[in-house]
Specification:
The chain is about 45% helix and about 15% strand. The chain has about 525 residues and is of the alpha/beta class.
């Protein structure tokens, strides 16, 4: 760990005195308001945010755009939070951003502002990096909640996206799903389209009411909006209808049940994104007197299923290609060109990329999702051994559905390696994880963090609901070695905390290196 990383890790995650969003805007003013020059896709939710961000990033990169992505947490190195075209930013850019934000924090403290919290500091660093690299799109993941999250200082995203909603961080977000949904929906902005996982019945009305109040076009995604086709060794095939590319057969590089919904949310968001880029062209279709196409556009924005009656909207595609533009509405209702200051040739290049993407028949969507990689989310690291970052009740329930299905298919017993942080509801996590699964053994590890739950407490919680051998270890390395040595031919899952997954990833080293692949028969795979 470098001196800069050590400094960052010492910054408190929580503070009694915090900067308000108005204060955060003052910090960004000092940086030149870099967010206002960016085309942002803002993503919130309890589980699935990282996977959706990765799908969005991968597809946009596949289409030829330059994409900056801000995600959390990291597994091994803090630079994993700052991605440029899907890869961690370079060390020089990381350090340059750190010193610029460190100087900013000192100046603002001198004016009476609170020192930035850990996540706030990283958010400023990300914007500094993106101002330097000038990506075509920015995929921005919230940290905690939405309404009061530091990323919610952004007031003109082009899309807002909500993934699944479940119980987590109740001490901050509320103790009901309705309250948590209200916090997540706090990222909605006036007239900005909302694409959301509609599977939380308790949160549905809250989301709809908030979107309606702000005039946000709504695009709910439920299980009816994709069709499971089949599973292959390294991917899950689903069918999704789109308004631009028609019906697509998409291979998700994961065995996880929950990835079907995540992929469907991402595909719909990309579909809406293209429509928005075209709709916000100065002049727009509404002034062009083309009632047939205009009628299709209005119907598409009202219908969560897209252009249900016209799977190949050729006229619409032609108009999109001619009219596509990078123009965005500001919070005061005016319009601005995102690419002001760029050369005509640069703008033309971007519009050519958009046109090629629209005309590719959906190949960019298919290839982008198939090539996506999000470590530590139902990631197969050895034959029959999976790492999953499920770290709350909702995440563990989703993992349990996948484990049950895999056990039914293979008839194999299951081995579990588990660790959790003390402020999670690990008793309920354990109950949901073990539900209707035949478990051969459990290995419990104490993680290298002050937040780690006591291993004996976790052992007792497992003993209350299952009857199998349980082994406890004081550190992850010993637990992992024992886990691999004793699992035999069982399906093996390591879950409960991203801290745990990160430590295991560190033990594995670079699992994508050729030597590792040859040594253990690595199959690859992803993720939530």
């Amino acid at each position: 760990m470098t001196n800069i990383e050590e400094y960052l890790e010492r910054i408190p995650m929580w503070a009694s005195r915090k900067n308000s969003l108005d204060n955060v805007r003052d910090f960004l003013e000092e940086l030149g308001n870099p967010d206002r020059e960016m085309r942002i896709l803002h993503v919130a939710g309890t589980n699935g945010k990282g996977s959706v961000c990765q799908y969005l990033t991968s597809v946009l990169c596949q289409a030829g755009f330059r994409v900056g992505t801000f995600v959390s947490p990291h597994l091994e190195t803090i630079r994993e939070r700052f991605l440029m075209d899907g890869n961690p930013v370079d060390q020089d850019g990381f350090e340059e951003a750190f010193w610029q934000v460190r100087s900013l924090a000192d100046r603002m403290a001198g004016r009476g502002y609170a020192p930035p919290t850990y996540f706030e500091f990283l958010f400023y660093m990300f914007l500094v990096m993106m101002k330097r690299t000038t990506p075509d799109f920015v995929v921005l993941e919230t940290g905690l909640g939405g309404r009061l999250d530091v990323t919610n200082v952004v007031n003109v995203p082009i899309l807002t996206i909500l993934t699944s909603i479940s119980m987590d961080h109740m001490q901050y977000l509320g103790d009901t799903l309705e309250k948590i949904a209200a916090e997540k929906a706090g990222i909605f902005k006036k007239n900005v389209p909302v694409i959301y996982d509609d599977s939380c019945l308790e949160g549905r009305g809250i989301i709809e009411k908030r979107a309606e109040a702000l005039g946000c076009p709504r695009f709910p995604i439920g299980s009816k909006d994709y069709v499971f086709i089949r599973r292959e060794e390294e991917k899950t095939l689903i069918q999704v209808d789109t308004g631009i590319w028609g019906r697509l057969l998409i291979g998700i590089p994961s065995q996880a049940e929950y990835q079907m919904m995540n992929a469907a949310v991402a595909v719909r968001a990309l579909d809406v994104l293209v429509q928005e880029l075209w709709r916000k062209d100065s002049g727009g279709l509404e002034t062009q007197g083309e009632p047939e196409v205009l009628g299709q556009q209005k119907q598409w924005r009202k219908n969560s299923g897209g252009l249900e009656t016209q799977k190949e909207p050729e006229v619409l595609v032609q108009k999109l290609c001619r009219r596509a533009s990078f123009v965005q509405e500001t919070s005061d209702g005016l319009t601005k060109d995102d690419w002001t200051g760029k050369s005509d040739s640069s703008r033309k290049e971007l519009e050519d990329l958009l046109e090629a993407w629209i005309k590719d028949g959906g190949a960019g969507i298919i290839q982008g999702i198939q090539r996506s990689y999000w470590p530590g989310r139902m990631e197969q690291v050895l034959e029959g051994v999976y790492l999953d970052g499920a770290h709350n009740v909702g995440g563990v329930e989703a993992l349990n559905r996948t484990i049950r299905r895999m056990q039914e298919e293979t008839k194999k017993p299951v081995s579990i390696m588990f660790g959790a942080v003390s402020d999670k509801d690990h008793r309920q996590m354990i109950r949901r994880l073990c539900d209707r699964i035949s478990i051969a053994q459990v290995t419990i590890a104490h993680m290298d963090t002050k937040r780690s739950a006591g291993c004996r407490e976790l052992e007792e919680e497992f003993n209350q609901i299952i009857n199998c051998p349980i082994k406890v270890f004081p550190e992850v390395g010993q637990a992992w070695e024992y886990f691999l040595r004793t699992r035999k031919d069982s399906l093996a899952f390591c879950a409960g905390s991203l801290y745990l997954v990160g430590e295991v990833k560190g033990l594995l080293g670079n699992s994508r290196a050729p030597g590792f692949v040859e040594a253990v028969g690595f199959k690859g795979g992803t993720d939530r």
